[in-house]
Amino acid sequence: MSTALPHREVRPARGSSRAGRPRRRPLSIRQRDQLTGYLFIAPQLFGIAAFVILPLCLVIWFSLQNWNVLSGTSTFAGADNYRKLLADPQIAQVALATAIFSVGLVLLNIPMALVLAVLLNRKGRGIAFFRTAFFTPVVISTVAWSIVWQFLLQDNGGVNGLLSLVGITGPNWLQTGPTAMLAVIVVQVFKNVGLNMVLFLAGLQGVPRELQEAARVDGAGGWRVFRSIVLPLISPTILLTVIITIVGSLQVFAQIAVLTAGGPGLSTTVLVYYLYQQAFQFHDFGYGSTLAIVLFVVVLILTIIQWQLRRKWVFYEN
């Protein structure tokens, strides 16, 4: 007489599915955190790739072409556009105008913004109004701001009207080279000084009051406290504002186009406006792309130099 053995259910081995395929191991906590981080930065990476890296590569490719927009033809030119740049008789004057504009903007904007921030870094009636008033031009349309100043700087404009009240006959500011460059610089300073002022205000409000009070107790005057304590502590903010101002000065276009159109002559033709003329007025996109590469290299070099200098004059707590 035989005895039947009880039936046992055969379970699949651990790590395998019922269909015989291996089952995926669940992600660890670290892997899930990494995946979440990549998903968060994916839109930014896509934006950089689509709107920065790809256009930059296309500009480099266009700089190697002779692109006739009117006829719709494009031929490979190699380094012809770069040789044209070296032989361009106007590029020296354009570079000089760009340097004067950038240096003048930095020398006026940074000290003025710092002085305004120091004056407004206190509590009192009307301080909020003045902070808002100085920052308001930052959010105004650049074209509208430039058009208003174009009327004010004319021969019979508001600026010369004010000067005539004190017996001064003002020039036609936008029609002579030196005054045209000065006018463009001043208009740009008044437009963006509020932004640097706000950055300096944030830096000044982060300076510990205890350090300043301790220095005054030791006999330091107001200027010594500012020079020896406040300035070193806000040096990272100064570095940031200098970088922003220099990079921004090399990209100014609307003010030049509205106020002077690069004139008189080439006295206010900065590199960005010269690039625009070559590419969109003379329809030489190959040479315009070459100028864009030069502008990119100049901005990159200046930014790297300033960033390297931070080790010598920027104070960090650590």
UniProtKB/TrEMBL annotation:
Pfam family, one: BPD_transp_1
Domain of life: Bacteria
InterPro entries tied to this protein: ABC_transporter_permease (IPR051393), MetI-like (IPR000515), MetI-like_sf (IPR035906)
Keyword field contains rRNA-binding: no
Residues annotated as transmembrane: 35-64, 91-120, 132-152, 180-204, 225-247, 253-276, 288-309
Signal peptide: none
Gene3D superfamilies registered for this protein in UniProt: MetI-like
Main subcellular localisation: membrane
Composition bias, Basic and acidic residues: 1-12
Keywords, sorted A to Z: Cell membrane, Membrane, Transmembrane, Transmembrane helix, Transport
Entry-linked CDD domains: TM_PBP2 (cd06261)
Residue stretches in coiled coil: none
Region (Disordered): 1-25
Occurrences of domain ABC transmembrane type-1 (ranges): 95-306
Membrane topology summary: Multi-pass membrane protein
Compartments (UniProt record): Cell membrane
Protein family per UniProt: Belongs to the binding-protein-dependent transport system permease family.
Name of the featured protein: Sugar ABC transporter permease
